[in-house]
Design a protein that fits this description.
- The longest helix has 27 residues, at 182-208.
- Helix 13 packs across helix 14.
- The protein has a single domain, classed as Orthogonal Bundle (Farnesyl Diphosphate Synthase), CATH 1.10.600.10.
- The chain has helices at 13-16, 27-39, 46-55, 57-64, 70-90, 95-109, 118-140, 146-156, 159-163, 165-170, 176-179, 182-208, 218-226, 230-254, 260-286, 295-301; strands spanning 7-9, 303-305.
- With 313 residues, it is mostly helical.
- 69% of the residues lie in helices and 2% in strands.
- It starts with 6 loop residues before the first strand and ends in an 8-residue tail after the last strand.
- Keywords: Lyase, Magnesium, Metal-binding.
- It comes from Phellinidium pouzarii.
Length: 313
Protein backbone atom coordinates (compact mmCIF):
# COMPACT_ATOMS: atom_id res chain seq x y z
CA UNK A 1 0.00 0.00 0.00
CA UNK A 2 1.45 3.35 -1.04
CA UNK A 3 1.67 6.34 1.26
CA UNK A 4 -0.49 9.44 0.96
CA UNK A 5 1.17 12.29 -0.95
CA UNK A 6 0.58 14.37 2.18
CA UNK A 7 2.71 12.13 4.39
CA UNK A 8 6.01 10.32 4.10
CA UNK A 9 7.76 7.75 6.24
CA UNK A 10 11.37 8.33 7.23
CA UNK A 11 13.94 5.52 7.65
CA UNK A 12 14.61 4.03 11.06
CA UNK A 13 18.23 5.13 11.10
CA UNK A 14 18.50 4.32 14.79
CA UNK A 15 17.85 0.61 14.22
CA UNK A 16 20.59 0.53 11.58
CA UNK A 17 23.33 1.69 13.95
CA UNK A 18 23.69 -0.17 17.21
CA UNK A 19 26.10 2.26 18.79
CA UNK A 20 25.79 3.12 22.46
CA UNK A 21 24.50 6.56 23.40
CA UNK A 22 24.62 8.58 26.59
CA UNK A 23 24.18 12.16 27.79
CA UNK A 24 26.93 14.33 29.19
CA UNK A 25 25.83 15.31 32.73
CA UNK A 26 27.43 18.74 32.29
CA UNK A 27 24.96 19.94 29.69
CA UNK A 28 22.36 21.70 31.85
CA UNK A 29 24.78 23.80 33.89
CA UNK A 30 27.11 24.46 30.97
CA UNK A 31 24.11 25.22 28.76
CA UNK A 32 22.97 28.05 31.03
CA UNK A 33 26.47 29.54 31.10
CA UNK A 34 26.92 29.21 27.36
CA UNK A 35 23.56 30.81 26.55
CA UNK A 36 24.36 33.74 28.82
CA UNK A 37 27.67 34.16 26.99
CA UNK A 38 25.94 33.82 23.61
CA UNK A 39 23.20 36.34 24.44
CA UNK A 40 25.78 38.90 25.55
CA UNK A 41 26.64 39.48 21.87
CA UNK A 42 23.01 40.00 20.70
CA UNK A 43 23.80 38.56 17.27
CA UNK A 44 20.33 37.17 16.52
CA UNK A 45 16.96 38.81 16.04
CA UNK A 46 14.27 37.74 18.54
CA UNK A 47 12.75 35.36 15.96
CA UNK A 48 16.12 33.82 15.11
CA UNK A 49 17.00 33.55 18.80
CA UNK A 50 13.78 31.60 19.41
CA UNK A 51 14.73 29.22 16.59
CA UNK A 52 18.20 28.92 18.08
CA UNK A 53 16.79 28.08 21.53
CA UNK A 54 14.51 25.42 20.02
CA UNK A 55 17.55 23.84 18.39
CA UNK A 56 18.92 22.88 21.82
CA UNK A 57 22.59 23.05 20.90
CA UNK A 58 23.42 22.07 24.48
CA UNK A 59 21.53 18.80 24.02
CA UNK A 60 23.25 18.08 20.71
CA UNK A 61 26.65 18.51 22.35
CA UNK A 62 25.52 16.39 25.32
CA UNK A 63 24.66 13.53 22.94
CA UNK A 64 27.71 13.89 20.70
CA UNK A 65 30.43 14.62 23.30
CA UNK A 66 29.21 12.61 26.33
CA UNK A 67 32.81 11.90 27.38
CA UNK A 68 33.94 15.55 27.52
CA UNK A 69 34.93 17.13 30.83
CA UNK A 70 33.19 20.33 31.91
CA UNK A 71 35.69 22.76 30.39
CA UNK A 72 35.96 20.75 27.19
CA UNK A 73 32.18 20.44 26.97
CA UNK A 74 31.76 24.19 27.38
CA UNK A 75 34.28 24.85 24.60
CA UNK A 76 32.49 22.42 22.28
CA UNK A 77 29.13 23.97 23.11
CA UNK A 78 30.28 27.56 22.58
CA UNK A 79 31.83 26.62 19.25
CA UNK A 80 28.82 24.65 17.98
CA UNK A 81 26.48 27.42 19.17
CA UNK A 82 28.51 29.74 16.96
CA UNK A 83 28.01 27.37 14.03
CA UNK A 84 24.26 27.29 14.71
CA UNK A 85 24.19 31.08 14.81
CA UNK A 86 26.03 31.29 11.49
CA UNK A 87 23.53 28.87 9.99
CA UNK A 88 20.61 31.01 11.16
CA UNK A 89 22.19 34.26 10.00
CA UNK A 90 23.33 33.11 6.54
CA UNK A 91 20.11 31.17 5.94
CA UNK A 92 18.35 34.38 4.86
CA UNK A 93 21.33 36.14 3.29
CA UNK A 94 22.38 36.60 -0.29
CA UNK A 95 25.63 35.06 -1.43
CA UNK A 96 27.40 38.41 -1.12
CA UNK A 97 26.14 39.07 2.41
CA UNK A 98 26.93 35.50 3.46
CA UNK A 99 30.53 36.01 2.32
CA UNK A 100 30.81 39.12 4.48
CA UNK A 101 29.41 37.26 7.49
CA UNK A 102 31.70 34.29 7.00
CA UNK A 103 34.73 36.53 6.45
CA UNK A 104 34.08 37.99 9.89
CA UNK A 105 33.88 34.46 11.27
CA UNK A 106 37.25 33.55 9.78
CA UNK A 107 38.85 36.75 11.05
CA UNK A 108 37.52 36.00 14.52
CA UNK A 109 39.02 32.55 14.46
CA UNK A 110 42.36 34.17 13.51
CA UNK A 111 43.78 30.85 12.47
CA UNK A 112 42.79 29.12 15.70
CA UNK A 113 39.36 27.49 15.10
CA UNK A 114 40.26 24.39 17.08
CA UNK A 115 43.95 23.81 17.60
CA UNK A 116 45.75 26.54 15.71
CA UNK A 117 47.04 24.18 13.02
CA UNK A 118 47.17 24.88 9.31
CA UNK A 119 44.81 21.94 8.74
CA UNK A 120 42.24 23.48 11.10
CA UNK A 121 42.38 26.77 9.24
CA UNK A 122 42.03 25.02 5.88
CA UNK A 123 39.04 23.09 7.24
CA UNK A 124 37.41 26.30 8.46
CA UNK A 125 37.99 27.98 5.09
CA UNK A 126 36.46 25.03 3.24
CA UNK A 127 33.40 25.27 5.50
CA UNK A 128 33.11 29.01 4.92
CA UNK A 129 33.34 28.63 1.14
CA UNK A 130 30.67 25.90 1.21
CA UNK A 131 28.24 27.99 3.28
CA UNK A 132 28.69 30.95 0.93
CA UNK A 133 28.17 28.77 -2.12
CA UNK A 134 24.99 27.34 -0.57
CA UNK A 135 23.67 30.89 -0.14
CA UNK A 136 24.49 31.68 -3.77
CA UNK A 137 22.72 28.54 -4.99
CA UNK A 138 19.68 29.36 -2.86
CA UNK A 139 19.67 32.90 -4.23
CA UNK A 140 19.56 31.55 -7.81
CA UNK A 141 17.22 28.66 -6.99
CA UNK A 142 19.81 26.28 -8.46
CA UNK A 143 19.85 22.57 -7.62
CA UNK A 144 23.20 20.81 -8.01
CA UNK A 145 23.77 17.38 -9.48
CA UNK A 146 24.07 14.57 -6.95
CA UNK A 147 27.84 14.09 -7.05
CA UNK A 148 28.53 17.81 -6.80
CA UNK A 149 26.02 18.18 -3.98
CA UNK A 150 27.64 15.41 -1.94
CA UNK A 151 31.00 17.20 -2.06
CA UNK A 152 29.43 20.52 -1.05
CA UNK A 153 27.48 18.88 1.77
CA UNK A 154 30.61 17.36 3.27
CA UNK A 155 31.85 20.88 3.86
CA UNK A 156 28.79 23.00 4.66
CA UNK A 157 27.63 20.66 7.42
CA UNK A 158 30.76 21.67 9.38
CA UNK A 159 31.37 18.18 10.74
CA UNK A 160 35.07 18.24 9.94
CA UNK A 161 35.32 21.15 12.34
CA UNK A 162 33.24 19.33 14.95
CA UNK A 163 35.32 16.16 14.59
CA UNK A 164 38.52 18.15 15.14
CA UNK A 165 37.31 18.67 18.70
CA UNK A 166 37.67 14.95 19.49
CA UNK A 167 41.41 15.21 19.97
CA UNK A 168 40.98 18.30 22.13
CA UNK A 169 38.49 16.49 24.38
CA UNK A 170 40.59 13.33 24.67
CA UNK A 171 43.90 15.16 25.00
CA UNK A 172 45.84 13.59 22.14
CA UNK A 173 46.96 14.39 18.59
CA UNK A 174 46.72 11.67 15.99
CA UNK A 175 49.79 11.54 13.75
CA UNK A 176 49.47 12.59 10.11
CA UNK A 177 49.88 9.00 8.94
CA UNK A 178 46.46 8.17 10.40
CA UNK A 179 44.73 10.89 8.38
CA UNK A 180 46.69 9.77 5.32
CA UNK A 181 45.36 6.22 5.63
CA UNK A 182 42.60 5.58 3.05
CA UNK A 183 40.66 3.16 5.26
CA UNK A 184 40.60 5.58 8.17
CA UNK A 185 39.56 8.47 5.93
CA UNK A 186 36.83 6.36 4.35
CA UNK A 187 35.44 5.85 7.85
CA UNK A 188 35.85 9.55 8.62
CA UNK A 189 33.90 10.66 5.56
CA UNK A 190 31.48 7.76 5.92
CA UNK A 191 30.50 9.20 9.30
CA UNK A 192 30.15 12.68 7.76
CA UNK A 193 27.96 11.29 4.99
CA UNK A 194 25.72 9.29 7.35
CA UNK A 195 25.11 12.29 9.59
CA UNK A 196 24.44 14.49 6.56
CA UNK A 197 21.96 11.98 5.10
CA UNK A 198 20.01 11.77 8.36
CA UNK A 199 20.11 15.54 8.79
CA UNK A 200 18.79 16.16 5.26
CA UNK A 201 15.94 13.69 5.74
CA UNK A 202 14.99 15.18 9.09
CA UNK A 203 15.21 18.79 7.87
CA UNK A 204 13.52 18.28 4.50
CA UNK A 205 9.95 18.98 5.62
CA UNK A 206 10.94 22.20 7.34
CA UNK A 207 13.02 23.33 4.36
CA UNK A 208 10.53 22.46 1.62
CA UNK A 209 7.94 24.60 3.41
CA UNK A 210 10.18 27.67 3.00
CA UNK A 211 10.43 28.81 -0.58
CA UNK A 212 13.94 28.41 -2.00
CA UNK A 213 15.34 26.51 0.99
CA UNK A 214 15.03 22.92 -0.21
CA UNK A 215 17.54 23.26 -3.09
CA UNK A 216 20.41 22.42 -0.70
CA UNK A 217 18.95 19.14 0.51
CA UNK A 218 19.77 15.71 -0.85
CA UNK A 219 16.09 14.79 -0.97
CA UNK A 220 15.42 17.52 -3.52
CA UNK A 221 18.64 16.71 -5.39
CA UNK A 222 17.80 13.01 -5.78
CA UNK A 223 14.18 13.67 -6.78
CA UNK A 224 15.36 16.00 -9.52
CA UNK A 225 18.24 13.84 -10.77
CA UNK A 226 16.58 10.43 -10.61
CA UNK A 227 12.93 11.39 -11.08
CA UNK A 228 11.92 9.55 -7.91
CA UNK A 229 8.84 10.28 -5.85
CA UNK A 230 9.36 11.73 -2.38
CA UNK A 231 8.84 8.39 -0.63
CA UNK A 232 11.05 6.50 -3.08
CA UNK A 233 13.75 9.09 -2.51
CA UNK A 234 13.52 8.78 1.28
CA UNK A 235 13.71 4.98 0.97
CA UNK A 236 16.71 5.29 -1.35
CA UNK A 237 18.50 7.43 1.24
CA UNK A 238 17.73 4.83 3.90
CA UNK A 239 19.32 2.14 1.72
CA UNK A 240 22.39 4.31 1.23
CA UNK A 241 22.71 4.92 4.98
CA UNK A 242 22.56 1.17 5.62
CA UNK A 243 25.27 0.56 3.02
CA UNK A 244 27.49 3.24 4.55
CA UNK A 245 27.19 1.84 8.04
CA UNK A 246 28.02 -1.65 6.76
CA UNK A 247 31.13 -0.29 5.04
CA UNK A 248 32.06 1.58 8.22
CA UNK A 249 31.90 -1.62 10.27
CA UNK A 250 33.91 -3.55 7.66
CA UNK A 251 36.60 -0.85 7.58
CA UNK A 252 36.82 -0.86 11.36
CA UNK A 253 37.64 -4.56 11.24
CA UNK A 254 40.31 -4.20 8.55
CA UNK A 255 41.94 -0.92 9.63
CA UNK A 256 45.70 -1.43 9.89
CA UNK A 257 47.69 -0.98 13.09
CA UNK A 258 49.61 2.25 13.68
CA UNK A 259 51.35 0.93 16.78
CA UNK A 260 49.92 0.09 20.18
CA UNK A 261 49.78 3.63 21.63
CA UNK A 262 48.42 5.23 18.46
CA UNK A 263 45.88 2.43 17.99
CA UNK A 264 44.36 3.23 21.39
CA UNK A 265 43.85 6.84 20.34
CA UNK A 266 42.58 5.86 16.88
CA UNK A 267 39.86 3.69 18.34
CA UNK A 268 38.85 6.43 20.76
CA UNK A 269 38.49 8.69 17.72
CA UNK A 270 36.42 6.05 15.90
CA UNK A 271 34.20 5.59 18.95
CA UNK A 272 33.66 9.37 18.92
CA UNK A 273 32.57 9.14 15.26
CA UNK A 274 30.08 6.43 16.22
CA UNK A 275 28.83 8.54 19.10
CA UNK A 276 28.25 11.50 16.75
CA UNK A 277 26.29 9.32 14.29
CA UNK A 278 23.88 8.00 16.89
CA UNK A 279 23.88 11.16 19.02
CA UNK A 280 22.73 13.25 16.08
CA UNK A 281 19.73 10.94 15.64
CA UNK A 282 18.72 11.10 19.31
CA UNK A 283 19.08 14.89 19.34
CA UNK A 284 17.01 15.29 16.17
CA UNK A 285 14.04 13.61 17.85
CA UNK A 286 14.56 15.37 21.20
CA UNK A 287 14.05 18.95 20.02
CA UNK A 288 11.54 21.00 18.03
CA UNK A 289 14.11 21.97 15.40
CA UNK A 290 12.92 19.60 12.65
CA UNK A 291 9.57 18.19 13.71
CA UNK A 292 8.15 20.93 15.93
CA UNK A 293 5.97 19.83 18.81
CA UNK A 294 5.34 16.49 17.06
CA UNK A 295 8.94 15.32 17.49
CA UNK A 296 8.10 12.59 20.01
CA UNK A 297 5.25 11.27 17.84
CA UNK A 298 7.47 11.27 14.76
CA UNK A 299 10.09 9.34 16.69
CA UNK A 300 7.51 6.66 17.50
CA UNK A 301 5.79 6.43 14.13
CA UNK A 302 8.54 7.65 11.74
CA UNK A 303 5.70 9.32 9.83
CA UNK A 304 5.88 12.97 8.81
CA UNK A 305 3.01 15.09 7.49
CA UNK A 306 4.14 17.27 4.62
CA UNK A 307 3.95 20.91 5.68
CA UNK A 308 2.38 23.51 3.41
CA UNK A 309 4.73 26.03 1.90
CA UNK A 310 4.78 29.39 3.62
CA UNK A 311 2.37 31.66 1.83
CA UNK A 312 0.38 28.84 0.28
CA UNK A 313 -3.31 28.51 0.98
Amino acid sequence: MGSSPEIFRIPDFLSMCEYASSLNPCYKAAGVESLTWFDSFSVLTPRKRTMFIHSNADLLVAYTYPYAGYDEFRTCLDFISLLFALDEITDDQTGTDARLTMASFLNTLAGDPCDGSVISRMTAEAYIDAVCREAELRERGEILGLDEYRLLRRENIALRLCFSLFEYCFGFDLPNEVFADPTFMRMFYGAVDMIALANDVYSYNMEQAREGHSCSNIVTVIMKEKGFSLQRTIDYIGEEFRSLITDFADDKETLRSFGEKVDTDVYLFISALETWIVGNIFWSFSTERYFGKDHEEVRKTLTVRLAKQVGSS
